[in-house]
Amino acid sequence: MKTWIIAGTLVIALSAAGASGAFAQAGSTGGTLGKTDKSISGGDEAKRPQRVRSTAKHRETTRVSACSKLIGVWKGALGGDIIYKPGGTVLGTIPVNEGTWSCGNTGVTVMWTKVPSADHCTLSSDGTLQTCTNNRGNSFTRSRKS
Question: Of these four, 5, 38, 43, 77, which has the most CB atoms within 10 Å of its CB?
Fold first, then answer.
């Protein structure tokens, strides 16, 4: 009789354990525990950095934008007008002069031909002021007229 009691108790215990899922089949746990983005070593996967676009295109766009702000009429340091034209030509009214201008990474360079000299200028971000130094070491500013 004792054997039947032990067997009956064991059946009841196994039934209860089966109902609770304690003896669930391997691989069928019914859910995910913990982080799922771990590498094999157990650490979190490193976030891959976004691909950084080349800044060369940005610099070129910025340079072209700054150069386009240069075109127009500027008040010269001696009171006359400096006229920057599209295509790289420049005219000065006092003294009467002409030349070429170019725009690069370091600013604007004006090469005067009638009264030979060179001006190296930077343009303000709002496009209204040039700060220049000529090849003789003189510093001056030009302000936009139109």
Answer: 77
Phi, psi of 99 (to 5 degrees): 180, -155
The model carries a pTM of: 0.56
Rounded Cα distance, 48 and 85, in Å: 48
Q: How many CB atoms lie within 10 A of CB 133?
A: 15
Residue 103, helix vs strand vs coil: strand
Q: What is the CA radius of gyration of the chain?
A: 40
Statement: residue 49 has pLDDT above 70 = no
**In the predicted model, is pLDDT for residue 14 greater than 80?**
no
Q: Quick check: 96 pLDDT over 80?
A: yes
Q: Tell me which residue has tokens 């003789």.
A: 136
- 77 CB-near residues (< 8 Å, 6+ apart): 132, 140, 141, 142
Q: Count the Cβ atoms, other than its own, within 10 Å of residue 90.
A: 21
* Count of CB atoms situated within 10 Å of the CB of 107: 19
38 forms beta bridges with 44
Q: Three-state DSSP class for 30?
A: coil
